[in-house]
Write a structure and sequence with these properties.
This protein is α+β, with helices and mostly antiparallel strands and 137 residues long. The chain has four helices and six strands, in the order βαβββαββαα. The protein has helices spanning 24-30, 70-80, 116-121, 126-135, and strands at residues 14-17, 41-44, 50-52, 61-67, 90-94, 97-103. It is globular and about 45 Å long. It starts with 13 loop residues before the first strand and ends with a helix.
Length: 137
């Protein structure tokens, strides 16, 4: 515990093998290039590790929603900084949540979350984009 902030616990972020991420299978099912999973890491803040997928090929950027606590986003940013495939790691606010992003910035920040161009930016396969369109997601 820090003496500068009594009662405030430091956040502990651990990076684990990608296969331990709760959402690993979902990414494996949506990415155009599953080879990116080889450089991915599971980011564990509390109990559920989430996948951080590097940029490469058609995947120009990536992000992880850190929730409403900026400290979590800053800790994740620190943990990912310097990892291969995670250039320009940064924290930003989007839709009232803190987000850790890397790679290029979205060219159209106002895109609908499921806009096909946005999904392509994040490296989704044509089949995954078509499934989302059919499902109305």
């Amino acid at each position: 515990m820090s003496s500068a902030h009594p009662g405030v616990r430091p956040l502990r972020i651990t990076l684990r093998p990608a296969s331990e991420a709760h959402d690993y299978a979902a990414y494996a099912d949506t990415l155009a290039d599953n080879g990116l999973l080889n450089g991915a890491v599971a980011v564990s803040v509390f109990r559920i590790p989430l996948l951080a997928v590097p940029v490469g090929g058609a995947r120009r950027g990536g992000c992880l929603v850190a929730g409403s606590d900026c400290r979590i986003a800053l800790a994740i940013c620190d943990a990912l900084t310097g990892w291969t495939g995670f250039p320009d790691v940064r924290v930003m606010e989007a839709r009232r949540k803190w987000v850790v992003a890397w790679g290029e910035s979205e060219p159209e920040p106002g895109w609908d979350l499921v806009h096909p161009d946005r999904l392509r930016f994040y490296g989704y396969s044509a089949a995954a984009i078509a499934r989302r369109a059919l499902a109305g997601i």
